[in-house]
């Protein structure tokens, strides 16, 4: 979120910040100039690749959901909306941010600055809030599966998405009211940090409150998932047989031997009738299909639990450093951070828009299969 631009006291890649002052040595100055060019070129290529990868990954997710009818579910509508939001970040925010980061000065004018900052705050906040509504959807689906399955519709998902965007827009709008056109040439694009109340409002609304909600929801989901795993784990003794039948060396069955006292009754016609208990060994088997379903369900719960940890961990690693500095810098007047650090944390937050589609789709078998079919279709048609 380029809200960090409001905390840039000096350009990030200005000549003064990357060169060594050697007025008496022209050779050193030339070498420093070449070094600056190499750094700027490398940085421009790196940021361009990150931006392009973010566009492609989120674009593939959107196309996969759109073309695969099996994925037209309320849960995947939320994931698709997250991909659209992250795609907007890669189109509206990251290219201009890359240009500003590399050049170290703003050259696009005041109007573009206002549009870019509003788009940045809105899209990044909406992306974070999408993680919250996805977590909320999963929480309801796990803890109240029967009732929520009746309410879990695409219309409900659309309503949740609308709420996320309304909150994001409400966070990005206030700075527009106190921005004024400048008569002189605009060389920097930043949000005014004199409004401490807005800094608290925006950081808590865009990150700290959503993060607390994510921690609570994923904590509850983790506990529920662990409870289900323990309930579905097969016990060593005391199994309740839901089905049993006589065995005749049927392959692939997990048979257990029990001692029954049974013998076959013979009717007057000589046919064998219902068994009467005697001392004989009879083998019975637990339904393999039932046990297999339990094993698969437990494996899915474990995988989902791991996925939750990856999602939450990636989100916190990407956004926490940026929002710590965002909150601390305007309040602590004596604090100073290197401007390159602000840009690093800003782009670390942008990378979350690249990680989101990878995590959410690669942890879903339906997505992987649909994506593979789509790629095979593209290759065949080409």
From TrEMBL:
Gene3D superfamilies: Rhodopsin 7-helix transmembrane proteins
Compartmental location: Cell membrane
Family: Belongs to the G-protein coupled receptor 1 family.
Principal place of residence: membrane
Any one cellular-component term (Gene Ontology): plasma membrane
Complexes and interactors: Homodimer. Heterodimer with HTR1D.
GO biological process: adenylate cyclase-activating adrenergic receptor signaling pathway; bone remodeling; chemical synaptic transmission; positive regulation of MAPK cascade; regulation of behavior; vasoconstriction
Protein name according to UniProt: 5-hydroxytryptamine receptor 1B
CDD domains, alphabetized: 7tmA_5-HT1B_1D
Chain residue ranges for the region called Disordered: 1-33
GO molecular function list: G protein-coupled serotonin receptor activity
Bias type Polar residues, positions: 14-27
Segments traversing the membrane: 43-66, 78-103, 115-136, 157-178, 198-218, 308-329, 341-360
Keywords: Behavior, Cell membrane, Disulfide bond, G-protein coupled receptor, Glycoprotein, Lipoprotein, Membrane, Palmitate, Phosphoprotein, Receptor, Transducer, Transmembrane, Transmembrane helix
Organism from which the protein derives: Acipenser oxyrinchus oxyrinchus
């Amino acid at each position: 979120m380029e809200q960090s631009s409001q905390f840039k006291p000096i350009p990030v890649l200005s000549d003064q910040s990357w060169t060594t002052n050697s007025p008496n040595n022209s050779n050193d100055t030339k070498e420093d100039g070449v070094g600056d060019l190499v750094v700027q070129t490398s940085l421009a290529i790196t940021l361009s690749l990150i931006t392009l990868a973010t566009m492609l990954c989120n674009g593939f997710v959107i196309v996969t959901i759109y073309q695969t009818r099996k994925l037209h579910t309320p849960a995947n509508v939320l994931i698709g909306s997250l991909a659209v939001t992250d795609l907007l970040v890669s189109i509206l925010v990251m290219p201009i941010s890359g240009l500003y980061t590399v050049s170290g000065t703003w050259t696009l004018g005041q109007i573009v600055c206002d549009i870019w900052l509003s788009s940045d705050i809105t899209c990044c906040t909406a992306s974070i809030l999408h993680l919250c509504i996805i977590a909320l959807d999963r929480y309801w689906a796990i803890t109240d599966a029967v009732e929520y399955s009746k309410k879990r519709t695409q219309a409900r998902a659309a309503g949740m998405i609308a709420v996320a965007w309304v909150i994001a827009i409400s966070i990005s709008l206030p700075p527009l009211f106190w921005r004024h056109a400048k008569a002189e040439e605009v060389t920097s694009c930043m949000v005014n940090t004199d409004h401490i109340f807005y800094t608290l409002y925006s950081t808590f609304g865009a990150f700290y409150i959503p993060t607390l909600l994510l921690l609570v929801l994923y904590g509850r989901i983790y506990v529920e998932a662990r409870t289900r795993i323990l309930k579905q784990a097969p016990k060593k003794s005391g199994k309740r047989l839901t089905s049993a039948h006589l065995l005749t060396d049927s392959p692939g069955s997990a048979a257990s031997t029990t001692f029954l006292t049974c013998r076959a009754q013979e009717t007057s016609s000589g046919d064998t009738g219902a068994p009467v208990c005697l001392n004989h060994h009879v083998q019975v088997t637990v339904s393999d299909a039932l046990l297999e379903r339990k094993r698969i369900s437990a494996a899915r719960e474990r995988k989902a639990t791991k996925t939750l940890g990856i999602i939450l961990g990636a989100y916190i690693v990407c956004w926490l450093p940026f929002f710590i500095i965002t909150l601390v810098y305007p309040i602590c007047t004596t604090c100073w951070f290197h401007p390159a650090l602000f840009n690093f944390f800003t782009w670390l937050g942008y990378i979350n828009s690249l990680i989101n589609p990878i995590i959410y789709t690669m942890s879903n078998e339906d997505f992987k299969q649909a994506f593979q079919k789509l790629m095979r279709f593209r290759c065949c048609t080409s």
